[in-house]
Write a structure and sequence with these properties.
Keywords: Hydrolase, Magnesium, Manganese, Metal-binding. GO terms for molecular function: hydrolase activity. Its cofactor is Mn(2+); Mg(2+). InterPro entries: NUDIX_hydrolase-like_dom_sf, NUDIX_hydrolase_dom, NUDT19. The structure is a single chain. Helix content is about 25%, strand content about 30%. It has about 270 residues and is an alpha+beta fold. It has a single domain, classed as Nucleoside Triphosphate Pyrophosphohydrolase. The strands form three sheets. Strands 1, 2, 3, 4, 9, 10 and 11 form a seven-stranded mixed sheet that branches. It has a four-stranded mixed sheet with strand order 5-8-6-7, with no helix packed on it. Strands 12-13-14 form a three-stranded antiparallel sheet, with helices on one face. A hairpin with a 2-residue loop joins strand 1 and strand 2 (about 20-30). The mean pLDDT is about 90.
């Protein structure tokens, strides 16, 4: 037996909008060459960068200590997770959850981040030449933690060599901004209703890991963005770490409450 890998702190964001068929969520299909979840459909997100904990970042909305209560972690980790959620959403979807801050607690949302100057800074974030704190400070913006809601907490099982302690957030697409397929880690991006995404999973056309399919199932209960933001689970969130089960019908992830989720692997190219 070997010692399980220590889970890396990570954040992922369920970016939402109201579409013709109801609530839609922004989904990425990770390229098959990725070392983790290659070929799987997922949300924008990734691991925490050490600079996500910068304490001089302008901040509007619930303070880090409030997020620490929601996620059952220390204040430093909470700050890192919220910053990682905002940074990764900008890096992988071209959407920035930030705005001006007049010092009174009121903040407007930046309306458009699609210009060439923004793209240059997004690329600098990706290469780690620029931190989120530096980007916001340079533009006189504040991180808008009030645009995020805690939604779920999953930890990769100990049997996996690559593990993540992932906090899931929900956020509405800001007015004036558009999600763009800009991630080099994905070969497809789409807005889908949770029901449509799960229907594609059922046919094998859209493989995804259990945290994605389970949270899509949770989203399916909400008719629109407002309901999803208002219906975030009670705090603190309880971490879910599934076990695995092999049966004649296939391989399953088994959640602590007994729910079983069939594991679907991507088809070869």
């Amino acid at each position: 037996m070997t010692t399980p890998a220590e889970p890396r702190q990570a954040a992922t964001v369920l970016l939402l909008r109201d579409g013709r068929q109801g609530l839609e969520v922004y989904l990425l299909r990770r390229t098959k060459g990725m070392p983790f979840a290659g070929g799987m459909t997922a949300y924008p997100g990734g691991g925490v960068d050490p600079r996500d904990g910068d304490t001089d970042i302008a901040w509007a909305g619930p303070a880090p200590e409030r997020w620490a209560e929601a996620f059952g972690c220390d204040e430093r980790t909470a700050r890192e997770l919220v910053c990682a959620a905002v940074r990764e959403t900008f890096e992988e979807a071209g959407v920035l959850l930030a705005g001006t801050d007049d010092g009174s607690g009121a903040a407007g949302v930046v309306p458009d981040v699609s210009g060439d100057d923004w793209e240059e800074q997004r690329q600098a974030l990706l290469s780690r030449e620029l931190s989120l704190a530096e980007l916001l400070a340079g533009r006189g913006l504040a991180l808008r933690s009030d645009l995020l809601r805690p939604f779920a907490h999953w930890i990769t099982p100990p049997v996996e060599p690559r593990r993540y302690d992932t906090k899931f957030f929900v956020a509405a697409l800001p007015v004036g901004q558009e999600a763009r397929h800009v991630s080099g880690e994905a070969d497809e991006a789409a807005w889908l209703t949770p029901a449509a995404a799960l229907a594609e999973l059922a046919t094998g056309a859209r493989p995804m890991l259990p945290p994605t399919s389970h949270t899509l199932g949770q989203l399916a209960a909400f008719p629109d963005v407002a309901a999803a933001l208002a219906g975030s689970p009670p705090e603190p969130l309880h971490a879910i770490s599934p076990t695995f089960e092999q049966t004649p019908d296939g391989r399953w992830a088994v959640l602590p409450d007994g729910t079983r989720i069939r594991l679907v692997v991507p088809l070869p190219s």
